[in-house]
Amino acid sequence: xxxxxxxxxxxxxxxxxxxxxxxxxxxxxxxxxxxxxxxxxxxxxxxxxxxxxxxxxxxxxxxxxxxxxxxxxxxxxxxxxxxxxxxxxxxxxxxxxxxxxxxxxxxxxxxxxxxxxxxxxxxxxxxxxxxxxxxxxxxxxxxxxxxxxxxxxxxxxxxxxxxxxxxxxxxxxxxxxxxxxxxxxxxxxxxxxxxxxxxxxxxxxxxxxxxxxxxxxxxxxxxxxxxxxxxxxxxxxxxxxxxxxxxxxxxxxxxxxx
Length: 258
Description:
Layout: E1 3-6, E2 9-11, E3 33-35, H1 37-53, E4 57-62, H2 68-77, E5 81-85, H3 95-106, E6 113-117, H4 128-136, E7 140-149, E8 153-160, E9 163-170, E10 173-177, H5 189-197, E11 200-203, H6 240-254
Parallel strand pairs: 1-4, 1-6, 4-5, 5-11, 6-10, 7-10
Antiparallel strand pairs: 2-3, 7-8, 8-9
């Protein structure tokens, strides 16, 4: 079974984030980037499928030159090949255009399954996976916690609030995975060395038959602002009746949650 995994190179969630002077992005200088956390689980799931059913695992990304490191991480885990869409004309803040480019790169590969993380930790958009399914004309399941594969079919389990939804999909399909679907492996030293030697195929929009203009709806980042600083807590003391009255007043008038 041949599986394509879409991965994204994102800022390390442990790294301090600084907003650029134009407020339309983050300052990348000195910032550590890693493979998106949820995408690690997607790569791990693909590798387990390969171990059980044979085939190949291809990791795919769209992004600047540094994004090749996300592909190297996937190769070090055990992926067989990597494809990097790199083109300055591709607006990476427009999720639909990114999905359109990824779909154009995936289609010629003819995979049996396309996997993604359920979201990227840098924007939490959860758009690319479902958009990929739309552009490829494939069935989809999102935020999957258990994936079972059969002959031409897949059964996906999704955790809902107080329930589990079970979907049956025909293959090929697009599936986005939750973090509790598995525990990603650590790359081995031989895997890391092999990843350094494995060539990465680079594609431009022209290579994919795209122009960068007119594909998908446009989105635009108007600005980024840091979250407000958390205020110190307040301890309410006194008799129970007084405490309850003050608590209700504070929730209604200050926190405005009642």
